[in-house]
Design brief:
This protein is mainly alpha-helical and 344 residues long. Helices cover 51% and strands 6% of the residues. The structure holds fe (ii) ion (FE2). The site of fe (ii) ion has 6 residues, from loops.
């Protein structure tokens, strides 16, 4: 059974002497902050179950009910909302603004329609303007839970503060986010992991000689290449030292964003399933934008040409393909336009 997103706590004596309830009961484990189903609606609270519940409560556990079943609970237990302390906690400011953001997003989806990724990407590419997509990511992210984790809250905060213009990094954040969703990684935690990783993966550039970050990658000498390849580890190290509370997965994505499916990447030469899919997504998206902006060859290349070369796997100096079949196909499918097909 799926754990509801919102529950409220109740006292055991609110169950009175009843043995069957028209709502599900959950128990809260304070040692790890998790909830688990305890008794399904219309199942009897047997003596064994009742004893076990007593044991859990004595260990500091608590009983909880799905917020969606609040009315059923209040009616069947003949209680009023004000009798339940957990229903009378004042809503935090962040939750109030999240509620407002959710209402705004609903209205935006109703007026503009949900994001049609392929179509929207096509017009962003045609106009060379990604602001509309970037803004949609911001608006979606600002509805994320304010209670899930530091990384989820940070993703939401960074999006609110930074996703306000069409620039290189915001394009990477937005397209990585939609690529993850398109590859069925839709939960808030995974999406927040890739958002924070996209914002932070190049923090390590700040520790490199500035000449390196202004030299096209194809012009690196062997020692410059070696230096530049330290940036994933440097980003990881800086974030660790800073004490910012990022999830392990987010840190892994940052560390692995230059690993490639066939083992040709760095810093650990990982292969296939040893690389997080989100790292491959971030790696693919950063690579494509770096290529189009001229960071690889020294010359800007339009996105249509890059996608066409990716699609045809044409040998093009500095252009990488090894992002794994799933990511590669999703990327080609999403970014291919009629123009690319015509030119192919
Ligand atoms: Fe990088």
């Amino acid at each position: 059974m799926k754990i509801p997103e919102e529950l409220f706590h109740i006292e055991k004596d609110m169950l009175k002497d009843v043995k069957i309830f028209p709502y599900h009961l959950f128990v809260y484990n304070p040692s790890n902050g998790s909830y688990t189903p305890f008794l399904f609606a219309n199942s009897p609270l047997t003596k064994d179950k009742s004893d076990f519940l007593e044991f859990i409560l004595n260990k500091g556990g608590e009983l909880a009910v799905d917020m969606k079943q609040k009315k059923t609970f209040l009616t069947s237990s003949e209680l009023e909302e004000q009798d339940i302390p957990s229903l009378n906690i004042e809503t935090h400011e962040l939750e109030k603004s999240r509620d407002l953001n959710m209402a705004n997003l609903e209205m935006e989806n109703a007026t503009k329609g949900e994001v049609k990724l392929k179509e929207d990407l096509r017009s962003s590419l045609a106009e060379d303007n990604f602001l509309e997509l970037i803004t949609r990511v911001k608006n979606e992210t600002m509805t994320f839970s304010v209670r899930k984790s530091h990384t989820v809250s940070l993703a939401s905060y960074l999006s609110e503060k930074l996703l306000n213009e069409d620039n290189f990094i915001n394009r990477i954040v937005a397209i990585s986010y939609y690529m993850a969703k398109n590859c069925d990684m839709k939960d808030e935690e995974a999406l927040s992991d890739i958002i924070c990783a996209a914002f932070f993966c190049h923090l390590g550039h700040t520790q490199l000689d500035t000449k390196l970050t202004h030299t096209p990658h194809l012009e690196f000498s062997e020692s410059e290449k070696k230096q530049y390849r330290k940036h994933p580890s440097l980003s990881h190290h800086l974030l660790k030292k800073s004490g910012v509370d990022l999830s392990q997965r987010c840190m892994d994505i940052i560390f692995q964003h230059h690993e490639r499916d066939d083992g040709s990447g760095y810093p650990m030469f990982k292969k296939g399933e040893h690389i997080d899919q989100l790292s491959l997504i971030l790696g693919a998206v950063t690579h494509i934008f770096e290529y189009t902006f001229g960071y690889v060859t020294g010359t800007k290349t339009d996105m249509i040409t890059v996608i066409r070369n990716l699609k045809n796997k044409s040998f093009t100096p500095g252009l990488e393909f090894e992002f794994g079949d799933k990511i590669y196909e999703s990327l080609i499918n999403l970014l291919s336009t009629d123009t690319v097909d015509d030119a192919a």
